[in-house]
Amino acid sequence: MRRTIAAAFCALLLTAPTTAETLLVGNKGEDTLSLIALASGEELARLPTGKMPHEVAISPDGKQAAVVAYGSTTIDVFDVASRTEVRTIDLSPNQRPHGLLWLSDGRLVATTEGSDSVAVVAPDGKLTSISTGQKGTHMIVVAPGNRTAYTANIASGTVSVLDLKTAKELRDFAVGGKPEGLSLTKRGNELWIGDLDAPRVQVWDTKKGQEDRRAARRSGRDPRVDESRWKIRRDEQHRRGDDKPVRCRNACAGANDHRVGRAGKGPGNIAVQR
Questions:
Q1: Given pLDDT bands bounded at 50, 70 and 90, which one contains residue 198?
Q2: What is the DSSP letter of 159?
Q3: Under a CB-based contact definition with an 8 Å cutoff, are residues 152 and 139 in contact?
Q4: How many Cα neighbours within 13 Å face the side chain of 102?
Q5: 101 pairs with which residues across the strands?
Q6: Are strands 84-90 and 97-102 parallel, antiparallel or unpaired?
């Protein structure tokens, strides 16, 4: 399984068919991507990106990484092994890409917050835009089968349901607050929604299109943290300064294992390729 995580300062340990683990850190303050050897903590390379690199997604085969330019209209794609840029994808007229997924069928799916839309890039480069009609379309998850997507629209207090095959918005869930973090259960029948406006997690039944309050009471976990043995998060001091170490944490043991590397200025999200 390969995933990126939606929460700032967090990422998951992703699996891919290579032997070395590489930590990828988008440095928003200097428009670069740091590649760090997770085992040794050595920064292997620092590569230029578009303006304000934020979310990072790993390709299905684990060989490439895609990075959105939150301050622009592009996605940069890098080859991890050779530490080189492969291509730049322009999402215009979509603006300010943020949430990013690299689906198992090869499509890249990104929320484009500045244009209240979602951009879908096919493996052949064809671009499709889907309007949400909602403000602050920030994060996205996709259900099993890669057809139905859900976007968190912070400013509108809604979650949009999109059909990626027909490129149409199906409906909006009026969840209230400022929804940001999203996570789907493995079957796709429950959508977990984190709120920036309050210390709460909502659980919605995706078929009924309504909140399942019983499910919400069963657990208080942050939906942006996946069911994984590992997670990577920044040191608390990292939020206040630049070039600080990244902390590797054992999520099960609840203890810090080690710190790795030094990223550039204003790090955004990170991902691990191995």
A1: confident
A2: E
A3: yes
A4: 25
A5: 109
A6: unpaired
Q: Which two tokens stand for residue 105?
A: 């069928």
DSSP code for 73 = S
Task: Note the pTM of the prediction, 2 decimals.
Answer: 0.77
Contact 137, 116 (CB under 8 A): yes
Q: Is 87 helix (H, G, I), strand (E, B) or coil?
A: strand
DSSP state of 224: T
Tokens 């939606």 belong to residue: 6
DSSP state of 244: P
Q: At 93, which amino acid appears?
A: P
CA distance 127 to 228: 33
Give pLDDT tens digits for 73-128. 999 999 999 999 999 999 999 999 999 999 999 999 999 999 999 999 999 999 99
Residue 250 has a pLDDT of 44
| Residue 253 burial (C-beta neighbours within 10 Å; 0-12, 13-18, 19+) | exposed
Distance CA 70, CA 43 (A): 23
**Mean pLDDT lowest among 103-117, 132-146, 219-233:** 219-233
Q: Which domains does the chain have, with CATH numbers?
A: 10-172+225-273 (2.130.10.10)
- Cβ neighbour number for residue 18 with a 10 Å cutoff: 14
Q: How many CA atoms lie within 13 A of 127 on its CB side?
A: 15
- The answer to whether the bond into 48 is cis (omega within 30° of 0) is no
Distant-in-sequence, close-in-space partners of 99: CB < 8 Å, separation ≥ 6? 6, 55, 110, 111, 138, 139, 140, 151, 152
